[in-house]
Structures are given as C-alpha cells and as structure tokens.
Amino acid sequence: MENVHANQVEIVGAIRKIGANIKKDGSERKTLDYFKRKLEVLESYWQDYQKNHSQLVKSESRTHPYFTNSEYEIAREQYNSVKNIAVSGFSG
C-alpha cells in the first residue's frame, strides 16, 4: 500500500500545481475553456485521490502516517481551494 500512499502524494502535488499555474498564467490565457479544462483535470485528480483513499482506509492501520498526519483532510482543503479559484474564473 506504500505505492498507493506515494501516489496520493503525487496527486496532491499535481492539484497544487494546477492552483499555482492558474495564479501565474496571464489573463490572456484565462478563457472560459481554460478554466473548464483546469476543472476537468482537477476533478479527475480528485476522483483518483478518493479511490486511493478508499483503498487505504480498507487496508492500512490508522497509525499509518497518511492517517496520523491528516493527509486526506489536507488534500481536501487543497482541492477545495484550487476548485474555488478555478470556479471563480470559470463563472466570470
């Protein structure tokens, strides 16, 4: 299950990168289609994260660092933050 945990770390990094890219990209790139694509990718990452989370819940001890460090909760906050940025751009 360490591979699943490592994958979770990669997914959170990718989610953070989406947020960073939205913030740094110039306004000329930020079209409706741009935000739509960012949201689609974000949702895909979050779906994968949740699937992996379910696997970890079923197979790992609650003493695993994934649980003791509240990694799911931190990832959910990051996801929600990036989603809010993207949705605010998407809705105008």
| Strand composition percent | under 5%
* Weakly predicted, low-confidence segments: none
Our count of domains comes out at 1
Gross morphology: elongated
How would you characterize the largest beta sheet? none
Give the H and E element order. HHHH
Given the structure, what is the number of helices?
A: 4
**Rg from alpha-carbon coordinates:** 15 Å
Give a count of the beta strands, DSSP E runs of length 2 or more. Answer: 0
> What's the average pLDDT?
94
Helix fraction by DSSP (H/I, runs of at least 4): over 70%
Computed structural class: mainly alpha
Question: Kindly, what is the distance between the CA atoms of the first and last residues, rounded to a whole number of angstroms?
Answer: 42 Å
Protein name: (apollo) hypothetical protein
Short key terms for the protein model shown above:
elongated, single chain, 92 residues, mainly alpha, (apollo) hypothetical protein
Q: Any chance you could write out the topology, listing elements then pairs?
A:
Elements: H1 2-24, H2 32-59, H3 65-68, H4 71-90
Protein name: (apollo) hypothetical protein
Structural write-up:
- This is (apollo) hypothetical protein.
- With 92 residues, the protein is mainly α.
- It contains 4 helices and no strands.
- It has helices at residues 2-24, 32-59, 65-68, 71-90.
- The longest helix has 28 residues, at 32-59.
- The chain starts with a helix and ends with a helix.
Task: Tell me briefly what this model is.
This protein is mainly α. The chain is 82% helix and 0% strand. It has helices spanning 2-24, 32-59, 65-68, 71-90.
